[in-house]
Task: structure prediction
Amino acid sequence: MAKQAKNMGAQLKTLRRVMRYIRPHLPWLLLSLALALISVALTLYVPILVGRAIDCIVSAGRVDFDGLGSALIAIAVCAALTAGCQWVMNTINNRITYRTVADIRNDAFAHIQKLPLKYLDAHPAGDTVSRMISDVDTFADGLLMGFTQLFTGLATILGTLIFMLTLSLTITLVVVVITPLSLLVANFIATRTYSMFRLQSATRGEQTALIDEAIGEAKLVAAFGHGEKTLAQFDEINDRLRECSLQATFFSSLTNPCTRFVNSIVYAGVALTGALAAAGGMLSVGGLSSFLSYANQYTKPFNEISGVVTELQNALACAGRMFELIDEPEQEPDAEFAQTLCDPQGEIAIRGVDFSYTKDRPLIEGFSLDVKPGQHVAIVGPTGCGKTTMINLLMRFYDVDAGEIRIDGHETRDITRQNLRSSIGMVLQDTWLTAGTIRENIAMSRPDASLDEVIAAAKAAHAHSFIRRLPDGYDTVIGENGGQLSQGQKQLLCIARVMLSLPPMLILDEATSSIDTRTEHRIQKAFASMMQGRTSFIVAHRLSTIRHADMILVMREGRVVEQGTHEELLEKNGFYAELHQSQFAG
Result:
């Protein structure tokens, strides 16, 4: 019972959220409701006309052709008007549904842009995509069915009761007494299917995440022979999805036949009492025909509504997952009086910084550093020592747990993120490219740059020669993450992007890791020119690339264990010397 109450509370909360999105479309909703009422009224008037037509046929040779003709014309007019109302109503319902869905997707996508990186790092991209695409599509289907059938169904039930009351109070009471059985059956099943549909949606998201990962890293899977293991993982998730989907579908599909059984009892009760009333002269043959037609129309919406309720269970479960994403806490906004650095010099002071990705596993503790404007600082150390983490903290991709980082005397949390990040150019080991032209990817740092400026940046990055050989040169369209370009070519484009903007501070995180030795030598010269007078942080595994750095920080387990120039650190014969010897022992 407690679980059912919890599910019911979650559904009501989700439904209220959905209604807030529907509220801007309230005029269209009211028009749709009005058309539903008109359509139902016309539909329910037809059985009365049919009953009149039947009563016009008394016996052979005794037919009221004038009355019969009038009734048939009225039936045709009602049918035409009903069809027109339903067409307009369906168009309006589609408009409301898909505009509501568009608003939810827009809010979700805008919210993703404001989420902290720790959320995106901790949640599979495929699951987030599943919430944005599959769950919202399922929600749209349920919402559309609700608009299309729920209004007309409820109006039909109320309308048929009114029309039946005008014909016979006794028979109407028979209908009303048996009806609650149908509602009880539908409610019993519906309250138990919500959690099943929610589990189905979550498992589908897990499956999407695995598919996204397997396709995105297809080369890695093939290279290490993980095809069978990946297939086994997929089969395991697919089996779970099949099981929960079968359960949800089985229990939800019980609703319709159960309500149909109850409705058949209603129809039989109406037929029996109506026949007795007709035999006793209390009801005409045409009136009995109308009553049976109303009994059929009265029970039909219960079948439709039971199906709608099932779809709404699924839709609300999917909407709940979507709202969970929207409700995730945004990254801490910029301070109210956040500043912008007008002419940053690149003086950086790090004081007593503590940071960890998870509270139970400390990473960086008590880290301090002073960097003068224009200095070149190299960061070296074994994997997992905190090199890239320091870059994340400088860029405010993550905020420090304790301590502070200052740039030109200003605490980074007192500087707008946009201004801070625009003041620092980054070239990472992982390339950042989007679907678009070569020119658009290079000009991402300066969208207003001219073609000549883009070409000059590409030449400085030694990318111009391979770009010129592409089918459309700088207008060549590349796919997501670079399409068919080699890893080295992608890296050169990222370097050209930084060459174009030349911000006052630079971060190079294994920036030449994917480039051949000959090109790397040229790039190092270009970097040397680019870094002239700019504060630069160079994260490197190959120590040959950072020999001329003004300061080398040697990190180990989140702490700076040594610092100094290349020659000074070799003379100390410490951990840096061990790293150096391991690379140049030959």
In short: The two ends are 72 Å apart (CA to CA).
